[in-house]
Amino acid sequence: MIPDLLFLAFSAGILLGATLVIAARNPMVGVMGMILTFLNAAGLFILFGAEFLGLLTIMVYVGAIAVMFLFVLMTIDIDYIKLKEGFAPYLPAGLLVVALLAAELILAAAHSPAQLTPVVVVGQGPQPQNVVALGQVLFTTYALPFQIAGFILLTAMVGAIVLTHRPRNDVKRQNVTAQVLRKREDAMVLTRPKTGAGATAKHWNPKSVAKKVKA
Amino acid sequence: MAEYFPILLFAAIAVAIAIAMSAIPWLVNRPRYGKAKMSAYESGFEAFDTARRTFDVRFYLVAILFIVFDLEVAFLFPWAMVIKEISWFGFWSMMAFLAVLTIGFIYEWKKGALEWE
Amino acid sequence: MFFTLTLTHVLTLSAVLLAMGLAGIVLNRRNIITILMCLELILLSVNINLVGASHFRVDLTGQIFSFFILTVAAAELAIGLAIVTLFFRNKGTVEIDAAGLMKD
User: How far is the first Cα of chain C from the last one, in angstroms, to the nearest whole number?
Assistant: First the structure.
């Protein structure tokens, strides 16, 4: 009975957060609603036994994606009062289509053979943890999608740098490798300039004078 | 799954305390707002300009790099738990994944995206 | 209690969340940040669908697929928000109607 009530509570939280995202005038309130949705969805995942995925939802979605949304909202200056004006003529048609889609999906869900009560698995011996079970399949059976996910992350990294990196040319930096590989001959030259002439006198030729001094 | 019930209880109590701390002052003594009380404090005169500054896009690049490497670490967690069972094939599968992401890392290092200034 | 949790309830929740995400996109045509947030809601509804099916079928495939969807959603959002930032830097506004350079 408790899992059923918890499911209702988490569903209510998810739908409340989604309503905030849709209906908020200020995008900041929308992001707060999205965070509420994600937290309740993470609770729902843990309720369904997918604890790794639930905690990963909190870590990645709330911890990184919602933070990125907030960064972008802070970067761009939205005049939120002006944004909600304008009533499109095709708005009721769009909402009608969305409602029809929802009705179709709910009907399909209700009439599918998935109406069985939950299957209770009585495993032999101790069941592996969710993380362990995921790991056993993820790197062996699903190794190819795993590699493709790696390429997607590479694309995201390269794309992000290409789009947002602005190199600064007016900042002096150290090149530590060049500093460490410096040799004595490059750094210092021993000369003997003429008295009173100074080091920048026209006759001063460092290499020839150095040879004379050594010899 | 029943081991997570204390965490849910903890979260519920934390939310309840936060709501109580916000609601009780509002219930006990209704705040009375006035035009003078709600204006920004500028040592006596009106504010000239908004206090906001343009947010730097360097923070955003840091957030993106954090997301990508966070997902890489998220793939590393189950791998570390089962490395003994999936022995060599699983090991090389993860090494290929890490090699792909290391290429991206070298690219961003050479481009100077890791320098702050 | 008369309410027993079955897969139908989870699929209904997923369908309602999908519909709300789509309705958000239709209603908030002007603000691109809200559109991206509603896109995240749609992806979350798919995740709930998959994890619910994985729980009721006692099969791990749903969770694996959901893991990959999470990865792709994070990567896509990173690039999408970078594009939005550049769009704002060039246009000065986040209204979608300002992106009309390819019109007629």
Answer: 61
* Element at A188 (helix H, strand E): none
pTM: 0.84
**A27–chain B Cβ distance below 8 A for any pair:** no
**Phi/psi of residue B88, each to 5°?**
-75, -35
Query: Domain A2-122 class?
Result: mainly alpha
CB atoms under 10 Å from CB of A42, counted, come to: 22
Q: Which two tokens stand for residue B15?
A: 């939310």
Q: Give the gyration radius of chain C's Cα atoms.
A: 18
Q: Counting Cβ atoms within 10 Å, is residue B80 exposed (0-12), middle (13-18) or buried (19+)?
A: exposed
Give B87: exposed, middle or buried? Use CB within 10 Å, 0-12, 13-18, 19+: exposed
Q: Which chains touch C (3 or more CB pairs under 8 A)?
A: A, B
Query: Domains, chain B, ranges and CATH?
Result: 2-111 (1.20.58)
- Domain boundaries of chain A, sorted by first residue: 2-122
Query: In whole angstroms, what is the distance from residue C27 CA to residue C100 CA?
Result: 20
pLDDT in tens, A13-37: 999 999 999 988 888 899 999 999 9
Instruction: Name which of B64, B74, B103 is nearest A60 (Cβ-Cβ).
Output: B74
ipTM: 0.91
Can you read off the two tokens belonging to residue B96? 């290929």
